[in-house]
Amino acid sequence: MPAPSSTVPAEPATHQLALIGDAKRREFRSLSQWLCSQTASISEFSGIEAALQQDEPKLANADLTIVMQSWSDQFSAAEVNQLIGRTLFSRLLCIYSSACESDGRNRNVWPDAVRVPLRLAQSVIEQELQNADRDLDALPPTSARDEIFVHRLGNGDDWAPLPKLQAMNGAIISPDRTLRRTMAQATRELGLKSLEMPLIAVKSGQRTRPQETSRGPVNVVIHDLDPWGPLVEASLQAAREMFPSAAVLGLANMPDAGLTIEVADQPLEAIIPKLDIQHGLRWCLRQWLNA
Questions:
Q1: pLDDT (tens digit per residue) in 252-271
Q2: Beta pairing partners, 185
Q3: Full residue range of the structural domain in which residue 82 is found
Q4: pTM score
Q5: In angstroms, rounded to a whole number, what is the distance separating the alpha carbons of residues 173 and 137?
Q6: Does residue 5 form part of some domain?
Q7: C-alpha distances out from residue 86 to 13, 64, 92, 128, 199, Å
Q8: Is 259 within a domain?
Q9: What CATH code is carried by the domain that includes residue 55?
């Protein structure tokens, strides 16, 4: 009788990354730490010129080249065009900080297809590496905005309900009724049934009593942080008291800007960007579930 064969789990793919820019700057610290935690071999360069002048074919061999841009006009159009030409048949992303938010309106150094705000960097990088593993074509730098949208949206498998969420309950808290409905529908598609609530009004000196839904306790709260101020802060605290066992995620227009400083002392799992609810929501919930 033949001996049973043992199945050895496949090792995760080792990705080759080329990293251009000052990864040690404060705004890129979390992203740099996350990149180091991934299964990746990283070649670092101080600037585009240094990357182009190196003799080894590190750019050509990289699964993904990442440029970290801290301020507008940090890189010249000539440098960028050379880099795009060198990485034309691979993958290139320019991750820009909040100081460069308006560049898409008044500058055209980087094509829209490669520009990614820092708040979405981890989710987009992960998606591009998964596409590389699937041998999918990279997004051409000349792509139109509708093509970029379809590319970032992913395929049907990316939108399958998350099994762990299907046994959980959520609460969406926002003064914006339309946003509440949009978020409730988006979470429902991911498998999470959610309550919809306006901001929780709190009387001075009064504590909020814990509550449950008819299906059991609330496991995750998604709380609108805009406009940040005493009313939103009080509602956020009341939400923690009302749903004491729930993880709390924030929701904001500009999580890269001064808001991150304002909420630094708040125990938030993550802040989901309103400007890209679908992409950011799915990413943040998956990261929370896998933590």
A1: 987 765 777 788 788 899 88
A2: none
A3: 15-153
A4: 0.78
A5: 39
A6: no
A7: 24, 12, 10, 18, 51
A8: yes
A9: 3.40.50.2300
